[in-house]
Amino acid sequence: MNGGEKILGVEGGGTKTSWVLVERAGNELSVLDQGKLPPANFRLATPGELRAILSELPKEITSVGIFLAGCGTEEDRQSLTRLCAEIWPKAKIVVGSDRDSGLAAALGHGDGIVVNAGSGSSITGRRDKRIENAGGWGHILGDAGGGYFLSLQALRLILREYDLHRGEVQFTTKILRALSLNNLDELVRWAQTADKMEVAMLTPVVFEAAASGDSRVMEIIEEGARVLCEYTEAVATRLHALAPKVVLLGGLFQRDSIYNHAFRRRLKKTLPDARVANSERAPEFGAAWLAAEMQSWPEIRTEPPPDKIDDLAAALTEQRNPRSENLEKMSAQELVKLFVDEEKFVGEALRAANADLARAIELVAESLRKGGRLFYIGAGSSGRLGVLDASEIPPTFGASPELVQGIIAGGASALQRSVEGAEDEGSNGALAIDRRGIKDVDVVIGITASGRTPFVLGALARAKSLGAKTVLLSCNPARKQKVVADLVIDLAVGPEILTGSTRLKAGTATKIALNIISTGAMVALGKVRGNLMIDLNTSSTKLRDRATRMVAELTERDYDSARGQLEESGWDLRAVLKKSGH
Predict the structure, then answer these.
(1) Which of 21, 247, 413, 455 could join 423 via S-S bond, C-beta 3.0 to 4.6 A?
(2) Are residues 141 and 219 in the same domain?
(3) Alpha carbon of 102 to those of 93, 107, 253, 264, 286: distances in Å?
(4) Statement to judge: residues 429 and 467 lie in one domain
(5) Parallel, antiparallel, or unpaired for β 528-529 and 532-533?
(6) How does the average pLDDT of the chain come out, rounded?
């Protein structure tokens, strides 16, 4: 192995798994790479899920420290060690709980109390090698003061206010919008199946409501801070620490957060001499530090980042459009004219890609005939367009929702709001492919306007390795990244009116391209007669009316007679047409 000792540090919790790869040379640690993966709570994830997540991490290492939430007993540690030994058979393996990595990141070998508040919560204190804990019992019985706790209390507040006063707290609409729900009944059904992470992901909405002055929600924030302060004081008392160093760790204590201020204000009353600070290092660095068996925290040197940003800046989708450089000075009429004029580039790009789009139809139709499925995968606007097209296939063509599926980086929550950093990990795209059980008869279309989104490229590479047919749909013909795909479709729409806003021309061209591919494949599968949808799902009044008019037209019957035939068949449009010889 070239260079110094390579050490991998991993911290897994209920919201995400963070990792860092460092190189040790003497008493110096240099960061080689780092990233994030899906949640890896030892108690909530199956061994198979954990193995799949950890298998995406770097392999060529000397030592690895894996510290996961829920890994609390000796039996847990033995099981995790065996699993890690399968993945890194030659590496030194150190495992434990996220309490351990958090303590190492915040205090090193020093004394103090670490208050960790993320999706869950825990308090860990140390004095002269004595360890005292509070909280951290998991989201069912414990985790008071964590993101799950705060979000659950907020959801209960919404229902309580409705039951008592038939009113709504100020942020009810925000919660429903964040979840893409329409009413409280839908909220209750969502909550009955939501897991810890899905509930905890609502925490930013709760904080936003509190920061905007919602007094009821602010009471929930204060209660969470009070519980954490109470636990902190209990740990300090057991350690006989009158003026402890208290280090705040976890996503809820980000710089200048409302929770940070609420906790500090309350702790000042109960432990006035405590010295409170935010952790300077993330828990994954604590995991690497423990695996390296360092005696003190050295200065960590960050290597210059790869040329990813330069590649993005060079993308056609990131260039400035000379025709819109004075956008803010245009009148409404001038702006509309510019937008309409720019649409000609969408048509030109699609016409230039005619042959490739036809080939995509053939690839998809061939896979679907063999019993395969079509998957769209993307991030941000591209991912939303894929999910949109996939969601329209069942009602339009009477197909199973499994036949065409959309995968978006960041999951369902990314459909409504941006999920920071979700697109930056190629390994997350690969894991998304694994979780959908991609087979060699399937086809995967990766959608990325820039042609460089790691989530999408990682997914395509994994799908290709599994034997599936792969297609890249891009709006950046000048991309530098090497893409392994059976077919590449380039839609050269040029720079956007608003620089980098690929929801505009790139989004329009992408949506049309997806419409062409999916519709063309459904036509090839025999789901269309002429230009009529003979397999449409008659699940609404509008669609039943459309089916009735279709039968009336094709069989030359009156409307009522056609409707009667459909009712007798259980609204099986194809069966009625076949019986009538059409």
Answers:
(1) 455
(2) yes
(3) 18, 8, 14, 19, 6
(4) yes
(5) antiparallel
(6) 88
Q: Same domain, yes or no, for 84 and 10?
A: yes
Nearest in space to 293 (alpha carbons), one of 114, 4, 2, 27? 27
Provide the annotated active-site residues. 392, 423
- Give the bridge partners for 126, in sequence order: 112, 131
Residue 295 lies in a domain: yes
CA 48, CA 43: separation in Å to the nearest integer?
13
Domain assignment present for residue 569? The answer is yes
Residues of the chain with pLDDT below 50 are: 1-2, 304-305, 307-310, 312-313
CATH code of the domain in which 347 resides = 3.40.50.10490
d(CA 524, CA 518): 10
d(CA 436, CA 459): 11
pLDDT tens by residue, 455-509: 999 999 999 999 999 999 999 887 767 778 999 999 999 888 888 788 899 999 9
Residues 124 and 187 occupy one common structural domain? yes
Are 445 and 430 within one domain? Answer: yes
pTM: 0.75
Tokens of 343: 């649409």
What is the model's pLDDT at position 304? Answer: 47
The predicted pLDDT at position 169 comes to: 66
CA dihedral 36, 38, 42, 46 (to 10 degrees): -140
User: Would you say 136 and 122 are in contact if contact means Cβ atoms under 8 Å apart?
Assistant: yes
Domain assignment present for 312 = no
Q: Are residues 393 and 256 in the same domain?
A: no
**Identity of the amino acid at 199:** V
**Residue 485 domain flag:** yes
pLDDT at site 234: 96
Q: Do 365 and 502 fall within a single domain? A: yes
pLDDT of 561 reads: 86
Query: Residue 431 is encoded by which pair of tokens?
Result: 């894991």
- Are 446 and 566 within one domain? no
Burial of 542 (0-12, 13-18, 19+ CB in 10 A): exposed
Number of domains in the chain: 4
Neighbours of 313 (CB within 10 A): 11
Residue range of the domain that includes 94 = 5-100+282-302
Give CA–CA dist 292/25, Å, rounded. 11
Other beta carbons within 10 angstroms of residue 31's beta carbon come to 16
Give me 315's structure tokens. Answer: 């993308």
